[in-house]
Structures are given as structure tokens and as C-alpha cells.
From TrEMBL:
Record GO terms (molecular function): DNA binding
GO biological process, alphabetically ordered: DNA integration; DNA transposition
Ranges annotated as spanning the membrane: none
Pfam families the record matches: HTH_23 (PF13384), HTH_Tnp_Tc3_2 (PF01498)
Entry GO CC: nucleus
InterPro entries: Homeodomain-like_sf (IPR009057), Transposase_Tc1-like (IPR002492), WH-like_DNA-bd_sf (IPR036388)
Residue stretches making up the Transposase Tc1-like domain: 71-138
Source organism of the structure: Homalodisca liturata
Subcellular location field: Nucleus
PROSITE patterns: HTH_LACI_1
Protein name per UniProt: Transposase Tc1-like domain-containing protein
Length: 148
């Protein structure tokens, strides 16, 4: 998580204008000790509060925005599909991604790719109980049901 410029300025100000230790500054500002040390070192080396970023960080995304749209559309069309099924659909389109990537992309838009619970089939006994119940309340009117 990035530290706000306001917190960086507070760290430098506390270091220059008080005799607080790195630990005390970290506690006062609400950041880690190593973060305070890094902020102070950057400020002493360059005189700047903002860190120098060296290009783009992290691994490049395997999927493109177009691929993400296809994946989300397939998920919306059939919400019962698992991440493995959705991955297989993408593979048929010539896009190779892992099931974990599929799950990550769906989670980014608030969707889940889970195998739905299996529905328990009705047994003969359950069917008979339902029939008895239905016959018992067959003559009820709308007013009777409103009182429930």
C-alpha cells in the first residue's frame, strides 16, 4: 500500500523538528519502521518526498481487457459454469490462461466461479408428504394465505 504524501511530509517534519526516534515516528504517523527509514533515506538522498519508481512494477497481465470481457460475458450467460469450464471456453478461442487467473478476473468484477451445490432429489416419501400438504391446503383462499 502506498503511503500518502501527507504522511511522508509528516515523517520528514517529525524527524527534522523533534528528537523522536524512528520507532516513535512510525507509531505517531501509523506506518512501519522500515517505511519511515526508507522515506528519510529518500529525502536525504534526493530531497524529494516521493519515491522514484523504476518503470512498471510486477508481472504483465496474461489477459487483455478484451479477454476479460469475453470471460465475464461467458460467466453471465451461464453462471453455473466453473472456472475450469470458463478456462476451457477461452482455450477454444485460442486464449490460454489458468483456472486461478479466471477466478481472479471474475473476482475483480465481483463474480464467482464456483461449482453449485448439488440439489437433493425428492424421495418417494418427500413426494407423498408434499402431496398430502397440497391436498390439505387446496381449499385455502388468498385471504387465508395472507394471514399466514
Amino acid at each position: 500500500m502506498d503511503i500518502t504524501p501527507r504522511k511522508r511530509a509528516k515523517v520528514v517534519a517529525l524527524n527534522e523538528h523533534t528528537s523522536m526516534t524512528v520507532r516513535d515516528i512510525a507509531t505517531a504517523v501509523g506506518v512501519g519502521k522500515s517505511s519511515v527509514s526508507r522515506i528519510l533515506k529518500t529525502y536525504q538522498d534526493s530531497g524529494s518526498l516521493s519515491p522514484k519508481r523504476k518503470g512498471k512494477c510486477g508481472r504483465k497481465r496474461k489477459t487483455t481487457p478484451r479477454t476479460d470481457k469475453i470471460l465475464i460475458r461467458n460467466s453471465k450467460i451461464n453462471p453455473r459454469k466453473t472456472s475450469t469450464d470458463l478456462r476451457r471456453d477461452l482455450l477454444d478461442s485460442g486464449i490460454e490462461v489458468s483456472t486461478s487467473t479466471v477466478r481472479k478476473r471474475l473476482l475483480e468484477v465481483g463474480r464467482k466461479a464456483r461449482k453449485p451445490k448439488k440439489k437433493q432429489f425428492l424421495t418417494k416419501k418427500m413426494m407423498q408428504k408434499r402431496l398430502v400438504w397440497a391436498k390439505k391446503y387446496r381449499s385455502w383462499t388468498v385471504d387465508d394465505w395472507k394471514k399466514v
